Amino acid sequence: LKSNVRRHALTTLLPMKLTRTIACCLTAISLNASAQAPKYLGRYESTSADLQAIEMVTKDFQAALVAKDPRKLSTLFLNQSILFSTPASPSEVQKRRQERNVHSDGIGSGAVSSFVDFVATSKVPIEERFHNVRITQDGHLAWVIFDFEFLEDSKVQNYGIEVWQMIKVPNDNWKILSVVWSSHGAPKLPP
């Protein structure tokens, strides 16, 4: 009787376990294959001339700040209504909703004009330093992401990550379409 049970286990249960194992492996392989991105993704339309022109916008932006040149600075933006913001944290948005405006989303408006005015009227030297600049272009759109330090009177007042969306306009110039950045204030230096 024992040998019949063993034989039954070997002839019935083993193939069932093996079949389940194979099925699980095939399912995992199938899911992995379907999760891989198609080969056409990650290939962007980009030219060295456009990448150089985009990089020049970043340099012109920095130079306009140092020179306190509001006219030059304003020419770099698509228009004065673009998104230009460091969004408030969820807790700050909640506080604003409770205290002032139930519709507050933490995104300011009209910030480009305010920033240009700030640059024009600053009484101290200002500068924004960019580090680890990465540019991705795909046709007439581009993204510029970098770590930044914003300095007033040679002291870092703010730092974080900044992201620009850019667009190529009909005269082949590149313009800043949006600017969003994180904000950490002045760095805390050890005593």
Explain what the structure shows.
The chain is an alpha+beta fold. Helix content is 42%, strand content 26%. It has a five-stranded mixed β-sheet with strand order 1-5-4-3-2. A hairpin with a 2-residue loop joins strand 2 and strand 3. The longest helix is centred in the first third of the chain and has 34 residues, at 2-35. It is globular. The mean pLDDT is 87.
Main beta sheet strand tally, sense and closure: 5 strands, mixed
Mean pLDDT: 87
What is the strand arrangement across the widest sheet?
1-5-4-3-2
Radius of gyration: 28 Å
| Cα shape | globular
Strand content: 25-35%
Tally of helical segments: 5
Sequence of secondary-structure elements: HHHEHHEEEE
Indicate the multimeric state.
single chain
- Low-pLDDT parts are none
Structural class comes to alpha+beta
Question: What is the terminal-to-terminal distance?
Answer: 82 Å
- Please bin the fraction of helical residues: 40-55%
Counted beta strands = 5
Write the layout of secondary structure elements.
Blueprint: H1 2-35, H2 48-67, H3 70-75, E1 83-85, H4 90-99, H5 111-121, E2 126-138, E3 141-152, E4 155-168, E5 174-181
Parallel strand pairs: 1-5
Antiparallel strand pairs: 2-3, 3-4, 4-5
